[in-house]
Structure formats: structure tokens, C-alpha cells
Design brief:
6-stranded antiparallel β-sheet; alpha+beta; 35% helix; 9 helices
């Protein structure tokens, strides 16, 4: 495989960054995963980090060098994240279940497989043509699909940030698996959170990705535009941008031709911290989790799962 890839996350004006993202690849398979912890629920960052860690760990274990079924891998392990969150919510008597959106993709044998829950998106572009975009699991999208509001009204509707499907919570997630899509030389794939796409029209995203050959530059231009448009209301914004093939000659270019069959490489985007200009209340600071707190909670989740398996004999 040959591809060029870049990922980045910015905190915006929020207290802390609840987005998590990573990519992992073997000789013949590639995973991209992005999760947006839901700030309206406690510890969304934990749910997002658990989602990214679960999928990348499973990929490293199973892609040797191919996944048996990319589609099944995505649906099974996204469901597993939900089950793990539900398990720890019950065993630790949490008042509320941590929740997150997720969008994940596997590229294997020249085909793109995508699954998502929530309103984090995947775009597939070929030149100046948008071939595919995931459909948000949001209230406004449902209203639009039923003909109750127009496309213009979606951008200003009071429920524009409300979603009806996610990972975590009482309801089992509806994991939306897209049809597999063939990738051609030069195709671009973008995964992003609503902090980015919510401030930009699809036409703007398409224009920037088509204008800049370098994925690093294109991604940062999109983020600059989104931050400028959001002003003081900016959300966390994150993106992974990939160009398929070896069209680009850059430091971010990857070739797996010489990789051993049993080897995998995983790049997890570093977590950013609260900035001085973020609008923060004393209550929010108290509720902020450090990286160490999150890692401790993840360890507790793992331990709880082990205890459950021992009791049930699974």
C-alpha cells in the first residue's frame, strides 16, 4: 500500500479536548478511527479514548497482515466499545454512562469500508467530486429526511447539535455500515468531527481538499477556516486526511511494501490540554480529567471486564 496521511486535533474554546483519533496499518490493511466524546455527558473523553484504544488494539492483534472481514471488524468492535462502557457504568454504579460518536474506516485491497454512529463524518473525494459522505445520526437530519425542514433550516435549527445515536448510553447503537467503495490513485478520504464540518459547507471542504495537494496543508487550512468561522463558540475540532496512492512526495508519505507480514504501526494523536483563552468556570475545572485519570479509568474498565469473564466462565 502507498498513501499519504495526516491527523490533527485542536481544542477550540472548550475547557478540554474530548476528541480522540488514530490510525494504524499493517502491510496490507489500514485503519482510521475518530471519536468525539459527548460533552453534554460526564467523561465523554473516556468513552472516546476507549473507542480509539479498543479499535487500534484489535487491529494490531488481527491485521496480520489482512483482516478476515473489514466490515465485520468495524461493526463487531464498535459494538464491543458500547458493551464495555455499559459494563463499567453498571459495575462502578456511575450516575450516567459516558458517550461518544465514532467514525471508523478500513482500507484493504484497494477498497474503503466505513462504519459510524453519531455525527462525526467521513468524506470520500475524487478530484473535485464528492463521491460519498456519511449521513449524520442527528435530529435535524431526521427532520430533513422526513421533509419537515429544508437544507437551509438545518444550519440554524435549535436542535442542530442534537444526535439520536451514539456509543454508550441505555440504547444499543445503530452502527451504520456503508457499502464498500473502490479507491483510485489520488482519491482523498477525510474523517472529521462536527467542530470542523459544522462551521464549513461541504463545498468549502471539497474546494480546500481539491486545491491543496499536500494533506497536511489542506487539513490545517480547513481547521483555520473552521476556527475563524466559529470565533468564541469554537468546539473541539479534529480530522484525519488521507490521499491514496503515491501522488504526493512528502514526509507524511507511507509505503508498506517492505513491512514484515506480522508488523503493525499505530499513530495516536496526542491529547491537547486546556488553553489560557478558553472560557472556563471553577466548576468545569474541578470536573476536568487529567490524562492520568483517564488511563486509570481505562485500567479499571479492563479489570472489570476480566472479573466479569471469570464469573461467567466466558
Amino acid at each position: 500500500m502507498k498513501f499519504t496521511i495526516y491527523q490533527n486535533s485542536r481544542q477550540g474554546q472548550r475547557v478540554h479536548n474530548e476528541d480522540r483519533l488514530a490510525y494504524s496499518y499493517s502491510k496490507d490493511s489500514l485503519l482510521l478511527v475518530l471519536a468525539d466524546g459527548m460533552g453534554g455527558h460526564r467523561h465523554g473523553d473516556i468513552a472516546a479514548q476507549l473507542a480509539v484504544k479498543t479499535l487500534t488494539d484489535a487491529f494490531q492483534r488481527l491485521a496480520k497482515p489482512l483482516l478476515n472481514s473489514p466490515a465485520k471488524f468495524l461493526t463487531d468492535h464498535i459494538q464491543q466499545v458500547h458493551d464495555m462502557i455499559e459494563n463499567v457504568t453498571q459495575t462502578q454504579n456511575l450516575a450516567e454512562s459516558p458517550r461518544t460518536t465514532i467514525v471508523a474506516a478500513v482500507i484493504q485491497r484497494g477498497y474503503l469500508y466505513c462504519a459510524h454512529a453519531g455525527d462525526s463524518r467521513l468524506y470520500h473525494l475524487r478530484g473535485n467530486h464528492l463521491l460519498f459522505r456519511t449521513e449524520d445520526h442527528s435530529i435535524v437530519q431526521s427532520l430533513y429526511n422526513r421533509g419537515l425542514i429544508s437544507k437551509q433550516e438545518m444550519a440554524t435549527h435549535p436542535y442542530k447539535n442534537k444526535i439520536h445515536n451514539c456509543i454508550g448510553g441505555k440504547e444499543a447503537p445503530k452502527i451504520d455500515l456503508s457499502n464498500r467503495m473502490e479507491l483510485l490513485e489520488g482519491d482523498t478520504v477525510l474523517l472529521c468531527t462536527d467542530g470542523l464540518w459544522g462551521c464549513l459547507k461541504d463545498t468549502e471542504i471539497k474546494s480546500v481538499l481539491n486545491k491543496y495537494d499536500d494533506v497536511t496543508e489542506a487539513t490545517n487550512v480547513l481547521m483555520d477556516k473552521a476556527e475563524k468561522a466559529a470565533k468564541e463558540h469554537g468546539d473541539n475540532l479534529s480530522a484525519i486526511t488521507l490521499q491514496w496512492g503515491d501522488k504526493q512526495l512528502s514526509n507524511d508519505a507511507v509505503s508498506t511494501q517492505q513491512m514484515p507480514f506480522s508488523e503493525t504501526t499505530t499513530i495516536i494523536n496526542p491529547v491537547t490540554h486546556r488553553t489560557k483563552n478558553a472560557h472556563v468556570t471553577d466548576e468545569q475545572v474541578i470536573d476536568d480529567f487529567s490524562d492520568e485519570d483517564i488511563e486509570k479509568t481505562l485500567a479499571e474498565i479492563q479489570a472489570a471486564l476480566i472479573r466479569t469473564k471469570q464469573k461467567t466462565g466466558i
